[in-house]
Amino acid sequence: MTEATRRERLRAETEREIRQAARALLVESGRDAVTLRAIARKLGITAPALYRYYDSHDALLRQLCDDICADMASALYADLAAEPSGHVGCQVRAVCKAFRRWALAHPQEFALVFASPRDPLGADQFGSVFLQLAGRLIASNLVANHADDEVPEVLHEDLARFQQVLMDAVSVHGVTVEDDVLNLGKIYHVVQSWVRLYGHVALEVFGRFPFTVSNPEPMFDSMLDQMLTDIGFQEDDSAVH
Amino acid sequence: MTEATRRERLRAETEREIRQAARALLVESGRDAVTLRAIARKLGITAPALYRYYDSHDALLRQLCDDICADMASALYADLAAEPSGHVGCQVRAVCKAFRRWALAHPQEFALVFASPRDPLGADQFGSVFLQLAGRLIASNLVANHADDEVPEVLHEDLARFQQVLMDAVSVHGVTVEDDVLNLGKIYHVVQSWVRLYGHVALEVFGRFPFTVSNPEPMFDSMLDQMLTDIGFQEDDSAVH
DNA sequence: GAACTCTTGTAAACACCGTTCACTGAAACC
DNA sequence: GGTTTCAGTGAACGGTGTTTACAAGAGTTC
């Protein structure tokens, strides 16, 4: 079973511990606490040893971002699986709520991944859940058929590229979808929804609402209702919860 | 005229230079480059001297945030003043576009102020432009009269507090507004608009759209159109530009 | 089993960081 | 003129990322 040599196993184990220590430091004390020396201290080794595993502190932080994205995707998939009804609307709602819940429970991770002006996040990394769900969503007939000509023509090219990404994401999971069902108008609305979802969650995590919100959850739910209505879900469907 | 003593003048000048150097470092090389020693080097002094002006590195960063907010407010006011028409809709559009423009031109500043999980930003700091404009906006009759009962009851208390903030912000500038004109429904829509505006701008600055957007401006304009429509502006008014 | 290479770690060093502290010299005050 | 106030210095402490030379064990080859 274990084809790996003893050395490879040890190396993999150490690498796992490095990631784990880095993650713990981030969660406990924020980005600035994720220090090579602090990580090394947790493992009982010295800082230069870490250079056998990562080229630089920056590379280690990038790895940390990837790990966070993967973990978040797992969490969202789990929440999605816990949504028993087959209603796509309910599933969308569940994932959006799960995203907010995850961000509030992991503010440091959220800040690192979603609010750093660094290299563009590979779409596969964090977005696979969203992508897959968005693909199923706009493929389902529950979504109103927004006409393509609602969308400014300059956006066609970018949205068409996104369309391809979505169709690939959906087809990976076995489902194939007709080209015309997944039109640009629908895709445009998905992007608009991502703007609102991300906007609300980021504002809440960073405390940047223009006034102190004592109970942000119903405000989020309210936004979600409006979003699902705007995207074209019938009210009776979104009311299923 | 200059009542200040020579020492006070020198001190004020040095403090100005400190802020300026800190800002330059942030813009040139990002948050992590804003170092006490780097600032001191720019001024030709030593790092401990900075402790005569700020209690700590963190306090200096807070000051930097305040300066950034003030500068951004100035920029937005300038763009607002450059909007000749008296149409509130055009003014809202102008400020929103100016906010995006400012954020894209100052990504490091934007990240520091709007995407750090630190103490809540005093509303007066960055929000005065938004607040004043939002106050005028919802006071104007162009905005559809959203009924209060559209708003979940749990939000009433928070929105009422925001209502008070808005009315104060508007009345500072001489305009008084009737209580019923500025109802909770309208305020709720202002908050929703802030979510979308912030969401789009942050996603663009941080490159977190789920696909590469080759030309984000029309996407923003499109979002803005939708936002202004949703908030209740008639199309012919928002079409004035 | 001996000789060899590859890998993983160490220790020391360098330059940088925030922060503290004792000290200096000049400005301001009485 | 003597005293106080205060901006600035230099040295120091412990922290950081990173490089370098070196040791020691694991795996391989003969």
TrEMBL record, chains A, B:
Coiled-coil ranges (or none): none
Chain ranges of the HTH tetR-type domain: 12-72
Record InterPro entries: Homeodomain-like_sf, HTH-type_TetR-like_transc_reg, HTH_TetR, MT1864/Rv1816-like_C, Tet_transcr_reg_TetR-rel_C_sf
Residue ranges of DNA binding: 35-54
Domain of life: Bacteria
Keyword Metal-binding: no
Pfam families: TetR_C_33 (PF13305), TetR_N (PF00440)
Keyword Transcription: yes
Keywords: DNA-binding, Transcription, Transcription regulation
This protein's name: TetR/AcrR family transcriptional regulator
Organism: Lentzea miocenica
